[in-house]
User: Fold this.
Amino acid sequence: MIELKHLYKSFEDKDVLCDINAVFEKGKTNLIIGQSGSGKTVLIKNIVGLFQPTSGQILYDGRDFVKMSKRERVMIRREMGMIFQSAALFDSMSVLENVMFPLDMFSDKNEADRIRRAKFCLERVNLQGAEDKFPGEISGGMQKRVAIARAIALNPQYLFCDEPNSGLDPKTSLVIDDLIHDITQEYQMTTIINTHDMNSVMGIGENILFICDGHKEWQGSKDQIMTSTNEKLNSFIFASDLFRKVKEAQDLEQ
Amino acid sequence: MFIIEGLASFGRYLELMGRTFSVPERWRMFMKQYVKEMIQLGVDSIGIVLLISFFIGAVICIQIKLNIQSPWMPTFTTGYTTREIMLLEFSSSIMCLILSGKVGSNIASEIGTMRVTQQIDALEIMGVNSASFLILPKIMGMVSMIPFLVIFSIATGFIGAYATALLGVITVDDLTVGLQHAFNQWYVWMSIIKSLFFAFIIASVSSYYGYTVEGGSFDVGKASTNAVVRSSMLILFADLFLTPLLS
Assistant:
């Protein structure tokens, strides 16, 4: 479980995150949603330690990440996996080498076991046969799946995804969403996904945090989101024609 | 303002070097990267070093013969001068200036692209010391390979000079006597020692510019240019101090 307590982040004079309080539960797909520029990426970068919060607490199962020493941070980072918007695969390495990388760096297993584990992770994301290809030779969807395989190679307790569906078609997005959801339940990880894709929200949003202009506006599940009375949330959700029509159809049925 | 920015940049460079020179987390991975960098930065530069050194050796020989040699000077002057130029300046300083263009832009653009495509962030989140993982093998690889490049450059320069004998510019005997005349072995060592400093400058300064890129592809290009310009300037400055120190 990850808890945020009174989290603030400012860049010079500009407050980007203001008093964010949230709980992200284990074994659930936790979503952070909001418009572009609302502070989603800054929030996730604070949570994983790429940015240092101005004030507040980030608790990983009770362990305060902000107060940790450099050494402790390095150790806790080995319990994290992250999928970046751009997949961030190492382009000088093959698909198999990319997945093996965290194992090569931090595992004491022998080479045969490391290869076996990497191949298992690739099979888990349905990428068997692509081991020798390079990131530049595979599609965006496949790159995201390699990124997922790399992220789960060390059996992390925490999985972070920064707009995993960015640049993907709706069908591939569904595949990636389902994969993240299944893996979260299978490995009982605390997963946080940063997205503005409403299909993801309605598909896998078990716990959703909506932020607007750096403030927490709403938190709930996908079942509660359609009936919310929060104006800012509604203006975000129903900006899409499709969701407006779904809402109208629901209202008519009632 | 310029001085403050320069000092701030130097401070960031020192800080990065502090992170770079730490014990590798996995020696197996370090050795893998180290061998890769020796090939990419050193072995892959052999071609350009041989080509340029051959022609420069030949041209120096022709220029000296045509412009300096006269009936009043000993016949070994051309060979002697060619050797001194190759040993004292060309094969260390000028060759490193050329390499700062090839290797420096390669390092800065590679690391800069990794920065803007979040590959460095991915390393950091995994708990890897990205500076040490990426930069240390490059510095070590470059410093290990440069003595070989210097020796190849000197040898190929002499071969170039001998090639001019085929054109009838100079006789092989005169050139051989000149190349052997008053040979001081220390000059070879001096050339190698200077090149070690220059190799460190090329690899570390270019890595610094690549590592600190912010933005997109335009900024990677700018960092690559800055890396070449700054490392070339620093090589010239270092040469100015090292030459009297080692002579």
Summary: Chain B touches chain A through 15 residues (CB under 8 Å).
